[in-house]
Amino acid sequence: DAKTTQPTSMDCAEGRAANLPCNHSTISGNEYVYWYRQIHSQGPQYIIHGLKNNETNEMASLIITEDRKSSTLILPHATLRDTAVYYCIVRVGYGGSQGNLIFGKGTKLSVKP
Amino acid sequence: GAGVSQSPSNKVTEKGKDVELRCDPISGHTALYWYRQSLGQGLEFLIYFQGNSAPDKSGLPSDRFSAERTGGSVSTLTIQRTQQEDSAVYLCASSSIRTGGNGYTFGSGTRLTVV
């Protein structure tokens, strides 16, 4: 079972920041937080990951609370193309060969004009 | 190749027939994963190959499902005696420990429809 809890859906106005929350209260010390998104009819796409420090890349920022029990994915200026299902996943290890990803139901983000 | 390639992109088959779905992972990726996604649902893990190790088959839903990975590269997922509930998008992903935090690269999937 997925170890994360996310809201089922969220709306965001185009050009505004989208803040997607995720609860992972049972996260272990060696588990990373990963975010993927799935645009309609495509395979999931990696966005960002982190262990305990906040992270930023060209796509998004990831804010992890100090106790690591929750995190927020931030899309700073959402566009219509960011409409997708966003998955928050916790898993052991770093890199791509540490076992399968367990996907929950994710958050359906709808960016509206 | 530059990405994970899956074929066919769409497959319609009659109930009771066998189907084979193919996945070409990114060259050099040692790990390969199969997932399926039923309409409106999340991704369901099926099977995981890592190098020469025995595959993790814990997600296969029944003995009608099997998969192999030849030469550590291409993988084939076989569904025997297909049923209507097998209709879903079958997604393949590959990864390498050398990809660091970028994790997994997914293909676009094979949409299987059993009629």
Which key features would you list for this structure?
heterodimer, A: 113 residues, five-stranded mixed beta sheet, globular, B: 115 residues, mainly beta, six-stranded mixed beta sheet, four-stranded antiparallel beta sheet, 10 strands
Summed up:
Chain A has 113 residues and is an all-beta fold. Chain A is built from no helices and 9 strands. Chain B is mostly beta strands.
Describe it.
The complex is a heterodimer of chains A (113) and B (115). Chain A is built from no helices and nine strands. Chain A is mainly beta and 113 residues long. The mean pLDDT of chain A is 90. In chain B, the strands form two sheets. In chain B, strands 2, 4, 5, 8, 9 and 10 form a six-stranded mixed beta sheet that branches. Chain B has a four-stranded antiparallel beta sheet with strand order 1-3-7-6, with no helix packed on it. With 115 residues, chain B is mainly beta. The interface between A and B is medium-sized, with 22 and 33 residues.
